[in-house]
Amino acid sequence: MSFRIACLLAVLGFAHATFAQQEVTKTEASTGLTYVRSNTADGQCACFSLVGASSTFVWNASERYSGVLDVGYQRTTNINSTGNSLGLMTYMAGPRISFRGQRFTVFGQALAGGVRSNSNGSYNNASGFAGSAGGGVDVRLTPRISWRILQADYLLTRVTNYSNNVQNNIRFTTGIVLRLGWMPPKGPRRPYDRPY
Questions:
Q1: Does 80 fall in a domain?
Q2: CB of 144 closer than 8 Å to CB of 160
Q3: Domain that holds residue 57
Q4: Contact of 35 with 49, CB cutoff 8 Å
Q5: Less Cβ around it within 10 Å: N or C end of the chain?
Q6: Per the domain annotation, does 8 fall within a domain?
Q7: Number of folded domains that form the chain
């Protein structure tokens, strides 16, 4: 029994060291490469891919809770060899919850906003609703810079496609995160230190 308790204490100690909170700045900005797997225009999954970029701006209300603004643009020039192109610009905002360790941050978020699509075909030149839900993992490289190893989101868009006007997409992003603003001093936090 004492061996089991010792093992449990060792595991808890490792978890505490791994997930001890890191210093949090008031804001963060990120940019990266984004890959989207999307429906065809008729809403059926003869799927195709779009590639582009996305950027986020994060305001940290606390070490755990944040607000996110997300803007992205992805494009393909030849949908399933039809010669039709498609571009999607999304702009969304919403809450994020983060679990911060000494090196790793795991987060989940839910966003809502709009989408603007453009195509050289006769469909999908319209605006509509966009929403996403997902999460990701960041690894800290320096006190100011992190690498977003992977962010994966379900992306819902509602754009006219002369069928069901709903597109169910999966979005993957990797990129760089910059931590902006004032950082707390190293060492134990004192009562009169600024919170961020």
A1: yes
A2: no
A3: 25-180
A4: yes
A5: N
A6: no
A7: 1
Tokens of 122: 């006769």
In the numeric block, which tokens belong to residue 184?
């707390």
The residue assigned the tokens 């582009």 is 52
Within 14-82, strands assigned E span: 27-38, 48-60, 65-76
| 56: in domain | yes
* pLDDT at 52 exceeding the cut of 60: yes
Q: Which residues contact 113 (CB under 8 A, 6 or more apart)?
A: 70, 90, 91, 92, 93, 129, 130, 131
- Per-residue pLDDT for 51 more than 70? yes
Name the nearest CA neighbour of 56 among 129, 191, 148, 121. 148
- Res 135: pLDDT: 97
Confidence grade of residue 40 (pLDDT, cut at 50, 70, 90): low
pLDDT at 155 exceeding the cut of 50? yes
Looking at the domain assignment, is residue 195 inside a domain? Answer: no
pLDDT digits (tens, 9 = 90+) for 71-82: 999 998 877 777
